């Protein structure tokens, strides 16, 4: 890389002008970008919160980077913010082996180890649930969507829902452009539900959990479900949609933010593609910003999550009975 260009890129980096770095490097044909330039581009992508693109760039020079502690650190950093904690841990451990006692690497190792262990537990739980569903014959039914959603009983009608969530019906082109924008394939059961009403507030808004969160010891609550649209604030592509929550609020780039919660942004429900890939059937998780973006596994797929929602009074009544 020319010295003058490197000096300019480093200057922009010091000024937090990461988009300028990306734009400048993208002007250079891919076949002319050397290892150093790709490293600069991946660093800028990481700083812009575009972690998937950072990983793509880094893996394109895997053979050169494998013994480079900085390359391993940047890869671990990207994986960490995608909640790919197992991969992040592997990269940080290699970075520490190549360059021991680096403070930043050691700090990330301390953060990553418990999260990687939790991810392994969630992966095992997910596989066990899928195996159970397969043996019971319910797996294919859930993936294909049963078609039994009743818009008159499932959705709660209100002026607020109409203003913030409910959008006009969508077509196939909207699905394709939304999937391209988000980088993930939308589940069939979610698309089916949105065909009954494109986003809104369900009548049942509570999902039981086996783990405590900042919301409650045994459940989480949602405010609404985002529709396949961009016109309303609480839609997948809207002002407070999935990419906004990931890029501006710092939620891990593990999939799609599908539901907001009563905390006004401090926790969300997401479709989690970490175990299936961007084209697969995602699990559903709760992500808690109040607890360092702690991830709580909820359901093996979207339909199982929808069918698991219960009325909020379910937990209010049980609390009163306990007090009695």
TrEMBL record:
Ranges of the TPR repeats in the UniProt entry: 69-102
Spans traversing the lipid bilayer: none
Keyword field: TPR repeat
Record's keyword annotation contains Lipid metabolism: no
Protein name: SMI1/KNR4 family protein
Alphabetized SMART domains for the sequence: SMI1_KNR4, TPR
Name of one Pfam family that matches: SUKH_6
InterPro entries reported in the protein's UniProt record: Knr4/Smi1-like_dom, Knr4/Smi1-like_sf, TPR-like_helical_dom_sf, TPR_rpt
Hydrolase is among the record's keywords: no
Residue stretches making up the Knr4/Smi1-like domain: 169-308
């Amino acid at each position: 890389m020319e010295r003058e260009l490197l000096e300019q890129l480093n200057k922009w980096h010091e000024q937090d002008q990461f988009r300028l770095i990306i734009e400048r490097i993208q002007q250079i044909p891919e076949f002319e970008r050397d290892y150093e330039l790709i490293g600069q581009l991946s660093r800028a992508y990481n700083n812009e919160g575009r972690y998937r693109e950072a990983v793509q760039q880094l893996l394109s020079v895997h053979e050169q980077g494998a013994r480079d502690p900085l390359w391993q650190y940047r890869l671990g950093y990207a994986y960490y913010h995608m909640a790919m904690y197992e991969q992040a841990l592997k990269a940080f451990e290699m970075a520490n082996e190549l360059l021991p006692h680096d403070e930043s690497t050691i700090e990330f190792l301390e953060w990553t180890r418990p999260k990687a262990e939790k991810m392994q537990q969630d992966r095992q739980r997910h596989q066990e649930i899928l195996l159970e569903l397969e043996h019971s014959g319910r797996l294919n039914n859930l993936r294909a969507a049963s078609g039994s959603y009743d818009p008159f009983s499932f959705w709660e009608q209100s002026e607020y829902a109409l203003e913030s969530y409910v959008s006009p019906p969508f077509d196939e082109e909207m699905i394709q452009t939304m999937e391209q924008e988000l980088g993930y394939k939308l589940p069939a059961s979610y698309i089916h539900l949105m065909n009954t009403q494109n986003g809104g507030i369900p009548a049942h808004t509570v999902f039981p959990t086996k783990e405590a969160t900042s919301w409650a010891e045994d459940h989480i609550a949602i405010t609404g479900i985002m529709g396949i649209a961009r016109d309303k604030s609480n839609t997948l592509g809207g002002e407070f949609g999935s990419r906004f929550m990931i890029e501006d609020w710092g939620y891990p780039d593990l999939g799609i933010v599908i539901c907001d919660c009563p905390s006004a942004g401090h926790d969300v429900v997401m479709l989690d593609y970490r175990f299936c890939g961007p084209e697969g059937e995602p699990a559903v998780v709760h992500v808690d910003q109040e607890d360092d973006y702690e991830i709580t596994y909820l359901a093996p797929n979207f339909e199982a999550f929808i069918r698991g929602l219960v009325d909020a009074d379910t937990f209010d009544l049980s609390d009163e009975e306990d007090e009695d």
